[in-house]
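Students often ask what a holo structure prediction actually looks like on paper. The answer is less mysterious than it sounds. You provide the chain, you provide the ligand, and the output is a string of discrete structure tokens encoding the 3D arrangement of the protein together with 2-phosphoglyceric acid.
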Amino acid sequence: MEYSYESMKKAALKIFYKGVAAVSPEICVRKNLALKNGSIKIGKSSFSLEETGKIYLVGVGKASAAMAGEAEATLADHIDDGLVITKYGHSVPLKKCRLMEAGHPIPDENGVKATCELLSLISCAGPGDLVICMISGGGSALTPAPVEGISLADKQETTRHLLACGATIHEINTVRKHLSLIKGGQFCKNVNGANVVSLILSDVIGDDLDIIASGMTVGDGSTFNDCRDTLLHYRLWEKIPIAVRQHIESGISGTIRETPKPGDALFANVHNYISGTLSHALSAAEEESVKSGFNTLVLSSMIQGEATEVAKVLCAIAKETELWDRPLKRPACLLSGGETTVTLKGTGKGGRNMELALAAAINLQDSKKIVILSAGTDGTDGPTDAAGAFADSSTVKHAKKIGLSLESYLADNNSYIFFKELGDLVVTGPTMTNVMDMQIVIICD
Ligand SMILES: Nc1ncnc2c1ncn2[C@@H]1O[C@H](COP(=O)(O)OP(=O)(O)O)[C@@H](O)[C@H]1O
Ligand SMILES: O=C(O)[C@@H](CO)OP(=O)(O)O
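The corresponding structure tokens follow.
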């Protein structure tokens, strides 16, 4: 079969959508939540309706409104009260829960208000009650509850520095947890001994419960010392607001208490279950790729590192396939995913997927027929309206024709504008789910 760039891009997009569809909030919640024989089953936990007091449904994260919608459909009139905090544009109509939208990835005033309301709602719970949480990535930025002495502006500035320095989400959330009254398990301090059960859609490498949305219902394995180490490592210690520095120093000296740790009695009635992961999405993408006639290989669901470096490795494997039919015979499709980082040096507009695609285009200029799609499964890449971008063996040629220099767009972290000019953005709109980023690499004759 003869493949054109257009047909390869179409196939890549179809594979991406299949992956995303497999981790829709509805599917993930339906698999893990049921009402059966007078009991609510969530993950491996079961709560008899007769013995349970009030039932609260809460949610935080980009997928939380859609997750709560599915939970409402199952639990219907059994929910007594609820509140969901999601990112602007990620709402779906809810019947039982109040819905509040807030800023992401930089927290804002609406996030502060919403988090205050969330904490006030769950403080109505008590022994015998059940608090059901729908948690997904994005939850950290959406729930700013700064500790005393730290302002929202301090948190915003700290977040901006952390997002720009190339730190991993594990490192970023270690700091966030230690500046917060809700993150790092502290949500559970407010439920007065009620049962807490969380369904969690994972958007972090390794599916670490204490990292996704800063683990508000999970014991925190990190410390104030780790925060200082991270900030020193990325040379941010002198740049962050003084109030943040002082708070961390007080934590290190023991004047301020640590976040609750795994095994703390606070978590005796708390259960956390992963409801969907990137690995599920990649399996569905793999199935679609095979159906489309490609020899298919999932490389990894744990790709991390600087986006431009990851691009070099993916392109090297794609070119190996093109030249030597290794590790797959053509027509081939390589699938991968994870979360890269971008150390921002320029002032342009972009995201880590578009940055990866731009670097890939440079690496593919000496290849014959390779297409790469890199996109965020949440439908947003960086502070833009695109999910990601396509790069292919001919991108450099086309860019030169219209006078665009890839190197200068890359140096300015201006990948969004580059791919917009070229017409190679992947625009999906909010997908309502969030399991990190996916790369689909198609190699044809
Ligand atoms: N101009 C840019 N080029 C590349 N990456 C960028 C740019 N601006 C911001 N970013 C990256 O975008 C990330 C935030 O984007 P977002 O897609 O919202 O992340 P997430 O899906 O993890 O919430 C930050 O980690 C930041 O490094
Ligand atoms: O909320 C968070 O802490 C992170 C990880 O879960 O999500 P996002 O990268 O989407 O902001």
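The longest strand covers residues 295-306.
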